[in-house]
Backbone:
């Protein structure tokens, strides 16, 4: 059985003391592919380097809404640097994570929107999909996607369990990625939202080292735990675990344009 963790942060400082060991454990556990997702200039560069050093790891590059600079000039420079990083390696398979987050910061909403739109344009220029982060910004996120076409679409990573968001995202042709929160005992709408998503649109992820699934909630997460998200989906959709693993693996390969021979 093979698994594809479509969103992890292997560059995170929580892995600094044992990153190489964890990477080997992940590979040995049947996690055949994973995406190390960038969210800033430094993390995108680190993700690219990790992907270059490990055949089963791929990367994304982008500026998240929680990491955008304070001025427009700095923002344009950062996006220009992301473009260079993405052009340096074929292991960069998407622009992201990008999007809107009004939970942590509301004073820079307009700058967040500008960053989101410009990185959509960058993805189109580089013929790459996007990885979307959205938190308490559902309507603005959807409005931007409706008015700024994403040529190769993309994925709502760690998708909020919001029925309207999922409905609109699917109508626009995007993938939905589920993470640890769907396994939480107090998760609202989890089963209903999982059932809303057709098999051909589902991805799984850990968002590690954060959001560990049950039964490891509160502990450091890593890609080996992606099977618990797959188990939850299998339970809700009345499918075999192997079937969910295979479907989500093939979906991720297709979205990120990864050739099986690589």
Residues:
């Amino acid at each position: 059985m093979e698994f594809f963790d479509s969103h992890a942060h292997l560059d995170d400082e929580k892995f600094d003391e044992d990153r190489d060991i964890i990477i080997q454990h992940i590979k040995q556990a049947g996690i055949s592919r994973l995406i190390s997702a960038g969210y800033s200039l430094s993390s995108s560069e680190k993700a690219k380097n990790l992907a270059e050093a490990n055949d089963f790891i791929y990367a994304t590059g982008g500026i998240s809404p929680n990491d955008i600079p304070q001025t427009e000039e700095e923002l344009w420079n950062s996006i220009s640097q992301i473009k260079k990083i993405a052009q340096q390696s074929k292991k960069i398979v998407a622009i992201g994570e990008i999007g809107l987050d009004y939970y942590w910061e509301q004073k820079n909403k307009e700058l967040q929107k500008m960053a989101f739109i410009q990185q959509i344009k960058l993805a189109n220029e580089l013929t790459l999909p996007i990885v979307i982060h959205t938190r308490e910004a559902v309507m603005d996120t959807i409005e931007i996607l409706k008015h700024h076409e994403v040529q190769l679409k993309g994925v709502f990573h760690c998708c909020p369990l919001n029925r309207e968001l999922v409905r609109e995202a699917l109508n626009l042709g995007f993938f939905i990625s589920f993470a640890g929160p769907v396994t939480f005992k107090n998760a609202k709408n989890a089963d209903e939202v999982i059932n809303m998503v057709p098999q051909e649109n589902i991805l799984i992820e850990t968002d590690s080292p954060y959001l560990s699934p049950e039964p490891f909630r509160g502990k450091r997460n890593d890609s080996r735990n992606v099977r618990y998200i797959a188990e939850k989906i299998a339970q809700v959709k009345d499918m075999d675990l192997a079937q969910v693993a295979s479907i989500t693996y093939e979906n991720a390969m297709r979205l990120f344009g990864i050739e099986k021979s690589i």
Remarks:
- The longest helix spans residues 109-126.
- The chain is about 40% helix and 15% strand.
- The mean pLDDT is 96.
- Residues 3-255 form a domain with the TIM Barrel fold (CATH 3.20.20.140).
